[in-house]
Design goal:
Strand content: 5-15%
Helix content: 25-40%
Radius of gyration: 21 Å
CATH topology of the largest domain: Oxidized Rhodanese, domain 1
Shape: globular
Oligomer: single chain
Number of strands: 11
CATH architecture of the largest domain: 3-Layer(aba) Sandwich
Distance between the termini: 96 Å
Number of helices: 12
Largest sheet: 5 strands, parallel
CATH superfamily of the largest domain: Rhodanese-like domain
């Protein structure tokens, strides 16, 4: 009997150790019930793409986040890197979020900007169990005929203080160059999560186009249904990544242009698929492309090189 109890106890411990503390998807139907009940322990956050979308109509009780002002370090040039701890704390205080708040983020852009917001919250130590991504965002919400409002939500300021910064989620350009380009860590695979035309250099959004050598292109947007912005079945998403060699046993570094699509891919791989070793570079191609000593493949310059008269 004692042996059976011991074995049962070990099983419980092992199960507990494998519990996934993850950002999770919630459905519009669930959020509608919470809205109708005016749940006080939930903060709904609108992270729509355009700055004026919120004023034109948003989910009731949602507070506004401006992706370009609130989710970037505006003291840097270019200002696309993630905000500092102090900037983040001020944002949380303004939004009325404290450590016990469950946060549901949504956008109107396949979940890209809402993912950026939630990953920044993870970076600064908010409990992942309290971080939720609205599946389908405002697109599905409106398709279901749920109400929208132009009335801005108010929030009482909090005193949010960051206790832990999760720097382990980041990887620098120098790490990518050493581990992947130079091949010092062959077990690492590099994911470029931008659209294919940016990867190839057809669409140039920096001083030069193309991609980091050895990077493999899989855009997270392909994991989402375009009609209602909901995620495709998990098995289908997993297959999409595994067919390109991104399997759960690999260490994966990833980047995009400026930290939105890489945050989206990070949520997909780590929190939806359960991959363990995921790190991303928030400087992205916007940073790599401007360091002209760094190599690139499919390289196309933003301008045509001047012709030299040899006479």
């Amino acid at each position: 009997m004692k042996i059976k109890k011991l074995i049962l106890g070990l099983i419980v411990v092992l199960l507990w150790a494998n519990v996934s503390w993850a950002i999770s998807l919630v459905e519009a139907e669930w959020l509608k019930e919470k809205c109708d009940a005016k749940a006080k322990d939930i903060r709904i956050v609108d992270v729509s793409n355009k700055p004026d979308t919120y004023e034109k109509g948003h989910i009731p009780c949602a507070v506004k986040v401006n992706r370009y002002l609130d989710l970037s370090n505006t003291s840097m040039v270019p200002p696309h890197r993630y905000p500092t701890k102090e900037q983040f704390e001020k944002l949380m205080m303004r939004l009325g979020i404290d450590k016990d708040t469950t946060v549901v983020a949504y956008d109107d852009s396949l979940g890209l900007f809402a993912s950026r917001f939630l990953v920044i919250m993870e970076l600064y130590g908010h409990d992942n169990n309290k971080l939720k991504l609205l599946n389908g965002g405002s697109v599905r919400w409106k398709k279901l005929g749920y109400p929208m409002t132009t009335e801005p939500a108010t929030a009482k300021n909090t005193n949010y203080k960051v206790d832990n910064v999760r720097m382990d989620v980041f990887v620098g350009w120098d790490d990518i160059y050493r581990d992947v380009v130079l091949g010092e860590r062959p077990e690492v695979k590099l994911l470029d999560s931008r659209p294919a035309d940016e990867y190839s250099g057809k669409n140039i959004r920096s001083i030069r186009g193309g991609h980091i050598p050895k990077a493999i292109n899989v855009t997270g947007a392909d994991a989402v249904n375009k009609e209602d912005h909901t995620f495709k079945p998990i098995a289908e998403i997993r297959k999409m990544y595994e067919e390109k060699g991104f399997t759960p046993d690999k260490t994966i570094y990833e980047y995009c242009h400026s930290g939105d699509r890489s945050a989206h891919a990070y949520v997909i791989l780590k929190h939806l698929l359960g991959y363990k070793n995921i790190r991303f570079n928030d400087g992205g191609w916007a940073e790599w492309a401007t360091i002209l000593s760094l190599p690139a493949e499919g390289q196309v310059w933003l301008w045509e090189a001047p012709k030299v008269d040899k006479k």
